[in-house]
Prior knowledge:
alpha+beta, Porin, nine-stranded antiparallel beta sheet, 6 helices, 28% helix
Amino acid sequence: MQLDTYFQPVATSATDAFSFTRQHASNFAKRVADDFNPIHDIDAKRFCVPGDLLFAIALSKLGLSQKMHISFSDMVSDGVELHLQQEDDEHTAIQDANGKTYLRISARGEHCSDQDKIRGLTEQYVAFSGTTFPHVLVPLWQQHDVMVNPARPLVIYESMSIELDDFDFDRPTLQLAQPSLEVNGKRGNVRLPFVFKQGDREIGHGEKRMVISGLKPFDKAAIDDLVEFYNRRKVELGC
């Protein structure tokens, strides 16, 4: 993954400033994250830069810490000038030129700046994160007899966290643990725990959290149509 092909530096007083074109974000979603959500299409009315692209850039610039928590507070569109804002010894935010925060990172413990290790771990996480639909989410919905509204699916990437035992790894793998869904009326909270491994040795763990809104009773025919539409897009887009 050549991360510098998915964003562009911005020449301002903030030396780490960057932004995205719609093409940058769309390419990352489809080529790296295997994520074909229409919201990442270059012609989408409600266009959004993938949260995992922000996460990848944050790790490449800040390095990897043993304990990290990343929370997402708003969606990023194309052309927004962003920079890293150090808040204190443990907290950094990705903000725009007006001080609006889109992502906040908490980092503690030992630090690693080895870009090969960071890239390997990031690629594993992004590959896992981008394929949660339909492989993980649909079975959860069926289990709890709920589903999103296919006409307006509201799935919000809330946060992710990782905790590593050490940095003694080169190309780690990621395995999903036991996903769960907590339903409260028309709102659902999804937890996707995972473990990192180096060979057979577990080297850390983490969790991705999402919020789902507008839940309705599960309709297998409607979900089958949604999955077919999603898979058809992958074929049509040549991926």
